[in-house]
Each structure stands twice: as C-alpha cells, then as structure tokens.
Write a structure and sequence with these properties.
Distance between the termini: 31 Å
Number of strands: 10
Number of helices: 0
Number of domains: 1
Radius of gyration: 17 Å
Oligomer: single chain
Strand order of the largest sheet: 1-2-3-4-5-6-7-8
Length: 198
C-alpha cells in the first residue's frame, strides 16, 4: 500500500432475545489514518454506542461516546506495514470513555487485502490487526475490527474517501448466526467526526 489517507465508517447493529428480554445495541465508529511519505502517521478514531434492554421488570437505556487522536510513525517491513500511534489529544479532541482508564497507544500491523481474497469489495483495502491489546486497560478496539471478511477480525480501511461497513450481529452467545457484513464505498468522505452523525 502507498502513503496516503485511509478511512472507514462502521455501522453495527446487534440484537437478540434472552428468555423474555430484548437486547439491542447500535453503534457507529469511524477511523481516519494518514500515512505521510516521510514516515509520519496520524489518526483519529471515534465511536458512539446506544444500548437498550427491555423485558419484565427491566427497561434500561445507555449511551456512550469516545474519541481519541494519535500521532506516530509507520514503516514497511516486507509485506507488513507497521504503524505506531501514540496518544495525541492535539490531533482530535479527546472524549474519554472511562474517567479512571486512560486510552493507550495503538500498534497496528497492516497489509494489502486484495479483492481476490474475498468477494465483498472490488478494490484493495488496508487490513490491520492490533498488536498490543494487552497494553490497553479496556477493549479500545470494540466496534472497529470487523469479522467474517477474512479469518479473524480486522480494521479495514479504504484509500481516499474511505470504506462504509454495515454489520449486523446476534447478541446471544455463542452466536447462532454468523455476523452479516457488507462493504461499500463510503457515502461521502469519512471525516474525523463521522461517528457522531445519525
């Protein structure tokens, strides 16, 4: 993959029945990654989640919002592009999810995902895995890493305006049905604040 701008806009909907209770969750996440020709990198990610739980004696609703910016470097080692992203609130304003748990750096290991490796998108994508989840105090990757396209879960990014992901999931573990994932070109340019939109 070449230096440039890569981005994704992910809509995830999860629902299911537990006994006589109904659980639903709706999230929207966006991730914008810039790789400069001089080896510099920066990124902004954000996610908002709305959850509801209803049933006999239960009627609850919650919502969360989280945004974090990063700056760092990238380098190509063989087929893998290694991106070190250190927390930088100057890249985009921090909205912290937990008062007592601070976000940590992201170490991404990325490769070019050819269209021939799957049947969901006609152009090559940048597919990234997170190499340091053990450093995180909570699951910062929630809502960004998509299953079912290829083996395991990946942060999938498209160059330019970005990628649009529609993701439907079952809330009953273990899931009786596999996740349904559709990949399309972004509907307009994915920006830092795309995750805040309806």
């Amino acid at each position: 993959m070449q230096p440039g701008r890569y981005a994704v806009d992910i809509h995830k909907k999860l629902s299911g029945t537990h006994a006589r209770n109904w659980l639903s969750e709706d999230s929207r996440a966006s991730f914008v990654l810039n790789l400069d020709a001089n080896g510099q990198a920066d990124a902004c990610r954000g996610i908002r989640t709305r959850s509801s739980h209803s049933g006999p004696g239960v009627n609850s609703f919650s919502s969360t919002a989280h945004q974090q910016g990063y700056r760092g470097r990238w380098e190509l080692q063989g087929e893998w592009l290694h991106v070190t992203l250190n927390v930088d609130d100057g890249r985009c304003g921090r909205q912290q999810l937990y008062e007592n748990l601070a976000p940590q750096r992201w170490l991404l290991r990325c490769r070019k995902l050819e269209a021939a490796e799957h049947s969901r998108y006609a152009e090559p994508l940048l597919a990234c895995t997170l190499d340091n989840p053990q450093e995180h105090q909570y699951r910062e990757s929630f809502g960004y890493f998509v299953p079912e396209v290829i083996a395991d879960e990946w942060l999938l990014l498209a160059p330019g305006d970005g990628l649009h992901v529609e993701w439907l999931d079952d809330s009953v573990p273990p899931a009786a049905n596999p996740s349904q994932v559709a990949l399309k070109p972004a509907q307009g340019r994915v920006e830092d604040d795309t995750w805040t939109k309806q």
